[in-house]
Every structure is written in C-alpha cells, then in structure tokens.
Automatic annotation (TrEMBL):
<dbReference type="GO" id="GO:0000139">
    <property type="term" value="C:Golgi membrane"/>
</dbReference>
<keyword id="KW-0175">Coiled coil</keyword>
<keyword id="KW-0808">Transferase</keyword>
<keyword id="KW-0735">Signal-anchor</keyword>
<comment type="similarity">
    <text>Belongs to the glycosyltransferase 47 family.</text>
</comment>
<keyword id="KW-0812">Transmembrane</keyword>
<keyword id="KW-0333">Golgi apparatus</keyword>
<feature type="domain" description="Exostosin GT47">
    <location>
        <begin position="145"/>
        <end position="426"/>
    </location>
</feature>
<protein>
    <submittedName>
        <fullName>Probable glycosyltransferase At5g20260 isoform X2</fullName>
    </submittedName>
</protein>
<dbReference type="Pfam" id="PF03016">
    <property type="entry name" value="Exostosin_GT47"/>
</dbReference>
<keyword id="KW-0328">Glycosyltransferase</keyword>
<dbReference type="GO" id="GO:0016757">
    <property type="term" value="F:glycosyltransferase activity"/>
</dbReference>
<dbReference type="InterPro" id="IPR004263">
    <property type="entry name" value="Exostosin"/>
</dbReference>
<feature type="coiled-coil region">
    <location>
        <begin position="75"/>
        <end position="112"/>
    </location>
</feature>
<dbReference type="InterPro" id="IPR040911">
    <property type="entry name" value="Exostosin_GT47"/>
</dbReference>
Amino acid sequence: MAKTPTKLLLILPTFLILTLFFYLSIFHQNKFNFNLLSKLFRPPFDNPSINNIINHTHHPHDHDHDDNISYFTMLVKQEKEKKKKKNNQSSLEKIEDGLARARSSIQEATRTRSCKSEEEEIFVPRGPVYRNPYAFQQSHREMVKRFKIWTYKEGERPLVHQGPMSYFYGIEGHFIQEMEDGTSSINKFMARHPDEAHVFFLPFSIVNMRLSFYKPLDYDRGPINKVSLDYVNVVAQKHPYWNRTHGADHFMLSCHDWAPEISFANPQLLKNLIRALCNANTSEGFQPMRDVPIPEINVPGKDLNQPGLGLRTSKRRILAFFAGGNHGHVRKSLFAQWEKDSEIQLYEHLPKNQNYFQMLGQSKFCLCPSGYEVASSRIVEAIRAECVPVIIKDNYSFPFSDVLDWNRFSIYVPKAKIPEIKTMLKGISPRQYAKLVRGVRSVKWHFTLNRPSKPFDLIHMVLHSIWLRRLNIRLPY
C-alpha cells in the first residue's frame, strides 16, 4: 500500500504533459480551420489587379493585425469598384429595359391593330402604303418618348459638326445641324449625358472632306478614309462606348457617293457601324439589316423643298419624263432605247423655255434611273410633284422600306427590262394609276424636309430607321 502514492506521483507528471500536448494540438488545429474559413468567405476576384495580388501576398514575419489591415483595405477598395460597376450596369439596364418595353408595346399594337395616344398627333399613318400602320405609329411614338442620341463633341469645323445645306447633298448638313442645334425641336432626342444614349452619332461630313482635300479629277479615297478612321479611333480611345459594342450602336450619315467606301479603311473595326447612306447599293456592301438607306434630296438654295407645280392627274399629258445627264450604264441604256420616242420624253439638257418642276407636274410617270451610282434625287422630286416614280435601278435598297410598301406608290423596273417600260406603263389601268397616285400623296410628308423637324417628316423617318436598328441590338449588362 505504501508504494501506491509513489507510483501515482510518477504517473501524474506524465499525464499532465500528455494532456497539455493534446490541448495545444487542438488549439493549433482550430486556428488552421479558422484561417481556412476566412479564405472561403472572402469574395472571389476575377482577373485581380496588381494591388489585389500584392494584398494577397503572404509574408511569414508579418503580424496578424497587419494582414487584417491589408485585407480590409482591399475589401473597401473592391466594394467601391463593385459600386461603380453597378452604377454603370444600371444605366445600361435602364436603357435595355426601356427598349424591351418599347418592343412589347409595338408588338401589342400589331396584335390589337390599335394605338392609344394621350396627345393629339399631327400625322397618323394609315392606308395600304404602310406595311403595318399600327406598328409604325406605335414605334414612332416610342421613339419620340425614349430615343436618346449622343453626338460626339470631338473635331473641328468644317470637317466635323458641319455639312452642306443645299443641293444634292443637303440632307447631310441639315441632319448634322439638327442633331447639334440646341434650339431645335429635335433636341428631345439629344442625350444630356452619353450614359443615357441609345446610339452615338459620328458627325463628320464626307462632302466637306471631299471639298477640302481634293482637286478636280482627283479620285483617291485615301484621305477621306484616313480622316474618318482617325475620328473613330479618337472617340474609341477617349470614351468607353465604341469598345463596349464594337461600334454596333454608333452611326454616321452621308449622301456622297464615296461614303460607303470608308468601311474599307478598316473593315474589322468598322464592320458593325450603322451607315446611313444615300448610295445604298447592296452589291457594294450595303447591308439593309444593319445600314440605313436614306433618300437623296436636292435642297433649293433658300427653300427647303421644291415648288409644288403639279397638275391634276386628269390634265397630265406626258406619259413619262426624265431630264438629266446621260452617264452610267443604266441611263445609257435608257437613252439608247427611248430618246427618240414622243411619249417617253428624255432630255439630257432641258430646253431653256421649259421648267423642270413644271415638266414633272405635267407627267404621269417620272423615270428615276441610276447614274454613276444608285443614289439620285429623282425619286423625291417625283414624289413631291405627285408623279408616280418609275425606279430603274439594280441592287438598290429603298429608303424607309421597313415601314413603307413601295409597290403601292412606285413602279420598279430592273435594267434588263428597260425595253419593256412603255408596255408596262401603258398596261397600268386608270384605276391602278389612281391608286398609285393616292399612294404617292400618302407618303409625300415622309419625304418633306422641315426645320425644325416634325413628326413623321423626312428627318424623323431617318431617325426612325436608326431607331429600328437599335431595337435589334441587345447590349449585355
């Protein structure tokens, strides 16, 4: 019995040492698990910046509180970046949500064949010339309500922010001025900040570049392409919007024959750019689903539109009329076939005692052939004179054809059928002709230039075509 206490005294220290070792092991294990959980609860970082990598670097001799300070500093910074990113996303989300509502509203108008408006409208599209008048009316209404355009401020006149205001390229200058004129009624479309813009306008003038850089008989497109490309590069480097969509929500506008060729300056960079062009030739790269065909108009020096000298249809004695230069393969074929005909009156140079607009007003049909290019002011001149346009062009994309049915107010003749023109026109019955004339009168307002622009007029129609292209784009956010 005496030996028992002695044995206990020998065993007790060993037991205490083992117990202490066990608790120390448990403590160390719990500390490891705590570090593991803290890593699991840290937010994941995609493509961390160099600052984040530095903050995550382990230094064996650093104290725990220094590591905690570095970590929480990183958290604060990341929260700021996330908040900034969220603000940017919310602007895009707001834009896309509005466009989704517009699409739904247009679809509803199509389904119900009705439009409800709280305001009185100065023009209501109705009749067979429209593919879907209810969808068109609602789409235009949504455009006026929502559409915002940011015009870039970079660049100096006359190459940028200014264009021709008269003659064949006049629409270019009037559109640029309308986009930038703060007193214009169209300023309802002008975005106050680029973050709220649906599309971005590149306000350079191809016509003014042509006048500034070229001498007679100089046909090198290089300088125009270079300046246009430089402008895109400037705005792409200075602002985030081009790179965000690779240019898919950006557009330019020009009526010059050379305008389509700027895409060749850098096809990869400019492949998504919306080009609003008069020279809308599908055989030369014009893409109707992306690009916008616009009508060429001959703007008089003082007045915006040609004089209305059209006679009543019952008093029109000329079957068909054309006056213009005999250039381009289409016109050469037309003159070769019909120049000596008495019913189809062709003039390369109109006699001085005859007024061009009066001749349009005395004709039942007005011939609108291609020249060197497919663009021509003859179509708008015919419509303004209430003369049925006979469009003689190949590979031409018709303006506003998203909403207008050109078969209801014009005659299309491919180049191969020029010898059949007279037979075709004489085969149109008086009833059919009367319908065509009513169609021309129905669309006349859409080809009328107003300053300031008014609903459903020419500039509004151009904007509506751009609006429709933007409705087809969905930006990620």
